[in-house]
Amino acid sequence: GTTLTISSNHWIMAWTGLEINTLAILPLIAKSHHPRAIEAATKYFLVQAAASALVLFSSMTNAWHTGQWDITQLTHPASSLILTSAIAMKLGLVPFHFWFPEVLQGSSLPTGLLLSTAMKFPPLTLLFLTSHSLNPTLLTSMAMMSTALGGWMGLNQTQIRKILAFSSISHLGWMAIIITFNPKLTMINFYLYSLMTATVFLTLNTMKVTKLSSLMTAWTKTPSLNAMLLLTLLSLAGLPPLTGFLPKWLIIQELTKQEMALAATIISLLSLLSLFFYLRLAYCATITLPPHTTNHIKLWH
Question: pTM surpassing 0.90?
């Protein structure tokens, strides 16, 4: 499905790829037969089906007005607006973000990894291909709202998958703000984000950790993995000596070149919100001992 979407020239083929992707991930979400997982799969299906219908609708409107189905020739303003909202729905950008934390919470860690990296790739590719005709104001406001909301909502969570979902939303904000000005920066941001998120998800999967309280005892089982988790989380937060700072630096630089210094300042300040919960995750993972007795058997007893 992904290959079909990213290599297609025709809107119908791109839509087919997106549909195949959605149908392929559904059994993975619902695999555990838990009511929560079934609910997540249903939510995911409904949102993605609606978004795909909107993609098809926008491309048909464009074809109706311009007489062509080429992805790069999305010139009609109304259809580019509809497409932006459809892709925002597929990715989980604010204001279409509500489904994403719930779905991620309902699925297992490996599936969550797929949802936050691989499933974001085809919609982002479509944005990349149509980036020259998208509305910068709309995308900038969506991006700022995403960074703000991803930071604020993540502050109060104890479930690690939900925290990672909100972190994904705020990272998407960074990707969306720059896509009309320099699409290649969006892609480098996405690749680095995928790499770091994959590290976090696979580490948590190895430790069998899904809650903050069980993360506190994880250092007894795998001390070296824990140290790596600390560094990866700080890198995701975008602290300077680490890799995650690079895309943010480049994006801020590009925004100031485009005379959007105010937008760059606001989005940087908003990313401090998400820095707080990354620091809390890192703190729980490495520095603290739990204040209360846990249900987990400590391996060194």
Answer: yes
